[in-house]
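User: structure tokens for this one?
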Amino acid sequence: MTPAVELRRALADIAGSPVGTGTGYSTSLMCHRLGESSVTSVEYDSVIAARAKTAISQAGYTPTLVRGDGLNGYKANAPYDRIIATCSVRIIPYPWLEQGRTEGTITAPMMGWTVHQSRTVRPMERAVPATIFSA
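Assistant:
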């Protein structure tokens, strides 16, 4: 499945948090679809974050842009309906489970030793951390 199809599936009248702002393209798409006040994006690299902020501003959007470690999420604007990671992870970070709504989803590329697949996680109940569905 292509990232664009996964992004389209994930965006359905929600508050979202992309992890990995990158060029700002996905963040801008989320702003267009959801409204900029519903989007929080986290980028680790300060140079990439600055470029993305410029591109997103030129597109006419002003979402919450955070320079920090996306594995920690961004608690100030939680809870999120969707957390969409562009960075690969081996496990879903616990802060994402804490910051996602119980009925929300987390979509991330999962990197194992030999396999690379996208996964969607639904933190249905806090007592049961997550159920993983193949994308």
